[in-house]
Amino acid sequence: MKTPFSVMLKPRGAICNLSCAYCYYLPKEQLYPGSDFCMSEAVLEAFTRQYLAAHPGPEVVFAWQGGEPLLMGLEFFERAAALQRQYCPPGKFVSNTIQTNAVLVNDDWARFFKRNNFLIGVSLDGPQAMHDAYRLDRGGHPSFERTMAGLRRLQAHGVEINLLTTVHSANAPHPLDVYRFLRDEAGVLFMQFIPIVERAADGGVTERSVGALEYGDFLTTIFDEWVRRDVGRVFVQLFDVALGVYLGHPAGLCIFAETCGQGLALEHTGDLYACDHFVDIPHRLGNIQGTLLPNLVASPGQRKFGLSKRASLPHECRACKVRFLCNGECPKNRFIPSPGGDGGLNYLCAGYKAFFTHIDHPMRLMAAELRGGRPATNIMAVKY
């Protein structure tokens, strides 16, 4: 049986029309000096054909990111959709997601997304001052108003949207302001929160980074409002993933899975990397124009990369009561020395432990309701 995997597509590589201060991907431009940073039709065709042939299951998701993928232009994505139709085997269904800053979205883009059933992830860090703290363009100008204009165009055309909010030093102290803005003013009920953890030259983290306990407090505060009034109406990715685990499902996010290695990244050249957060020479698996995609995914190096997440888990994590939810989170954040000295603890460990401990009781109540054939929304009437 084929093993499921996903690939994050970078058709413009690290090129972006913004220059967000915390962006971890912009420096990847240095991997390809002199490149035009545009995915060729040959690479696009090779990936589409191989991905559709190799991917198990009825639905195949093409996930486009960057940099800023919309810099490729509308014609590129029209061609991508055409190739998907051409190579899609009988019995399979293709869907597309794009993560964008929405600055370039106009009516033509919005009509295309609606016509082709694209799910659009819009990067929005909260109210204007919080968003513009770090999300500036290359000229140092704020992006909030342009992002909101793009979001409103998508909404006007009925495009399916979710919001990606990074949590950093500017917005982490204001969790309810962020959550209520996304829910009530932006008007999007599907959202995810991504912590900014930037390594500093001295081995610590930058001043932009969210603190570990600060991130736990941010999630806990939003959870408490959500569980009292928004269950079944607002969908927060991390909360949904946790509830799934309480119901006995595998973690729906790679960062919380016991092992990894099934979420890869494809650069504009056709080079395949182990993970979006490990796009570097040691983690380059090969090029899909020279080696077939499934062979690269199943390569010994990639298997070792995926299994090392579990193998490198320190004793403190193995004995932790919330390990079943966290599994040490993403290896990129495991740089805190563990008391036992047998591995790196996750920088965010204290925050995750506090948050997952806090939500244990309500999560168990919601899981019990769902197992009994009752709605999880019943939790909102429970006093606990």
Tags for this model:
globular; two-stranded antiparallel sheet; 384 residues; 12 strands; 14 helices; alpha/beta; 15% strand
Report on this structure:
With 384 residues, this protein is of the alpha/beta class. The protein has helices spanning 41-54, 74-87, 107-115, 128-131, 144-156, 175-185, 212-229, 237-246, 293-297, 300-311, 315-318, 323-326, 349-358, 360-371; strands at residues 6-9, 59-64, 93-100, 118-123, 160-167, 190-195, 235-236, 263-266, 271-273, 284-287, 334-337, 344-346. Strands 7-6-5-4-3-2-1-8-9-10 form a ten-stranded mixed β-sheet. A two-stranded antiparallel sheet has the order 11-12. Strand 6 (190-195), helix 7 and strand 7 form a beta-alpha-beta unit. Helix 1 (41-54) packs parallel to helix 2, helix 7 (212-229) runs parallel beside helix 13 (349-358) and helix 8 crosses helix 14. The protein is globular, with a radius of gyration of 21 Å. The termini are far apart.
Calculate the mean pLDDT score and round it: 96
- SSE pattern: EHEHEHEHHEHEHEHEEEHHHHEEHH
Sheet-strand content, in percent, reads: 15-25%
Give the biggest sheet: 10 strands, mixed
Shape descriptor: globular
Strand line-up across the major sheet: 7-6-5-4-3-2-1-8-9-10
Gap between N and C termini, in Å? Answer: 45 Å
Q: How much is the radius of gyration in Å?
A: 21 Å
